[in-house]
Predict the 3D structure of the following.
Amino acid sequence: MCGIVGYLGTHDSLPLLMEGLKRLEYRGYDSAGVAIPVQGQMRIHKAAGKISNFERRIDGVRLPATEGIAHTRWATHGEPNDVNAHPHTDCTGKLALVHNGIIENHASLKRKLIEEGHAFRTETDTEVLAHLIEKYLTGHGLEVAVSMALQLVEGTYGIAVAHADHPGMLVGARHGSPLVIGVGSGEYFLASDVAAILGHTRHVVYLNDGEMAVLTRDGYHTSTIDRQRVEKEVEEVEWDLDMIEKGGFAHYMLKEIYEQPDSVRNAMRGRLQATEGLARLGGLNLSSEQLRDVKRIVLTACGTSWHAGLIGEYLIEEHARIPVEVEYASEFRYRNPILDEGTLVLVISQSGETADTLAAMREAKRKGARALGIVNAV
Ligand code: GLU
């Protein structure tokens, strides 16, 4: 999920990056941001919520630059808020980095970096990358510093890095999260998905896991993360945007059916800690004592969310051994449901806007039950 766009060329970069982000909107995200180097300073703008909200925030902002990086985030570590939105910076504020994926060993890296004097500003796993690259920049160029930093990282990443003291250069790398280089005429792109750049070029170089790329105004080169050069072919994308958004399927419904395993994996990504046998349920807002007091669960929703609730009933009863009922929100709100403090009402909605479901949530709260919402959209 979520996306990366980088641009280095001859056009005004801010509108180009914004256009790229919009092309990635269909993948889902919870916040957006850009970093653009202008005269030795890294200018960063970011905001939680929809790209339209972000656009309103930067209305009137003009950044005279023809390069930059941008991101749409799907939070795994740290709330989806303005501060945790990407790009992230190092202590100097000159390095900017966007990241898709999860840095599994972020906690130990962060501890060490803090001991070494780095100051962290966000709750994300991503920020360690910015500080780690900063550390290796002492005495090395950007490409070498990125390579040294990535060799210490465990987890998955697609990244793009820019630095105000190294204008005219973008560094990208991937491991377990896609990244492509777009080759235009006199301009280069980085993207997590060709859809972001297809309006500008059909010529792309797909990076493999464990590879990195350095883009400059004169060209680009690719290597492994430990800096063995690799020559890669430029491929021509034959799909059009519509086909890409549908992922090669005849229609969206089929695509969504085939995407189910990935969707389940993405939903659990960063939340299940297999090695410790634990789950991190950020945003639940219930203490373990409160959770232990739950005697009964009511799932309420409409349509597809209601069907998801039926699966939830089986899973929760099987694993938590707590009785679950699933009820149509449109019924729930009009009958007189039995709710008490021992009842937890889980309200499910894809859009977060389903009127009956919202009314059911209000009803549950009014009756003194604990109510929690599960929503696809922020
Ligand atoms: N793990 C990172 C975060 O939570 C990146 C999430 C993403 O892939 O957008 O900020």
About this structure: The pocket of glutamic acid is lined by residues 2, 73-78, 99-102, 124-126 (CB under 6 Å). The two ends are 15 Å apart (CA to CA). The mean pLDDT is 92. The CA atoms of residues 265 and 372 lie 22 Å apart.
